[in-house]
Amino acid sequence: MSRDYEIVRRETVYEGFFRISRLTLRHALFGGGQSETLVRERLERGNAVAVLPYDPWLDRVVLVEQFRQGAIDSGFGPWLLEPVAGIIEPGEQPEAVAHRETREESDCALGELVPMAHYLVSPGGSSQTAKLYCAQVDSRDLRLEGHGHPDEGEDIRLHVVPADQAIAMIDSGAVPAAMSSYGFD
Q1: Which of 21, 45, 83, 183 could share a disulfide with 50, CB 3.0–4.6 Å?
Q2: Which residues are annotated as a binding site for Mg(2+)?
Q3: Residue 184 pLDDT
Q4: Which pTM was predicted?
Q5: Are 149 and 103 in contact (CB under 8 A)?
Q6: Which cofactors are reported in the record for this sequence (predicted)?
Q7: DSSP states of 35-87
């Protein structure tokens, strides 16, 4: 089977906090030939970096809690626990974003970044990828509230939890963000 596809047309149909593109395309079929012309919208979110801050001396994980509008109708509620995360801006390297976002969201200094995963977030409707790292931090004496950029609508609280408790929280669904579950495989 050929893995060919053709983008007939690409247009931006919305540009705001996010951007939405509309693709008109055709692709090869497993049984041979080409699909009909399809029209699909795609969320252009930008690629993300996430960091799971881990304190190996105390066997604790640092998670951030913040309001996430995308989770309002999810059944989980909009206040989510998740790793530190941020969007890679044009010209930035993922590792630099990891350090910047960790400083902004938790005021932690990171040790060596250890790559854990690189995946498509929701390829059925979004172009976004996520790179997930783990890094050593010292979790003693962290300020738990007042993190993030208020001018960007961020109000972040830290949760410093034993690693086994964090794993149990993921297993129970208390930490539903996909980036979190990759961190404990």
Answers
A1: 83
A2: 85, 101, 105, 154
A3: 47
A4: 0.86
A5: no
A6: Mg(2+)
A7: PPPEEEEEEE---EEEEEEEETTTTEEEEEEEE-GGGTTSSS-SEEEE-EEEE
> Which residues, 6+ apart, have CB-to-CB distance to 16 below 8 Å?
none
Give bridge partners of residue 9 from the DSSP assignment.
Answer: 24
pLDDT 10s digits, 80-134:
999 999 999 999 999 999 999 999 999 999 999 999 999 998 999 999 999 999 9
Q: Of 160, 159, 183, give the one whose Cα is nearest residue 171.
A: 183
Residues 6 or more apart in contact with residue 123 via CB below 8 angstroms: none
What is the C-alpha separation between 180 and 185, in angstroms, rounded?
A: 10
Residue with tokens 């089977």: 1
Residue boundaries of the structural domains of the chain: 5-44, 48-182
Q: Which residues are catalytic?
A: 152
* Assigned token pair, 171: 């297993």
Nearest to 183 by CA among 39, 5, 52, 34: 52
What span, in angstroms and rounded, lies between the C-alpha atoms of 155 and 157? 7
Whether 47 shows a pLDDT value over 60: the answer reads: yes
- CB atoms inside a 10 Å sphere around CB 180: 24
Radius of gyration from C-alpha coordinates of the chain: 19
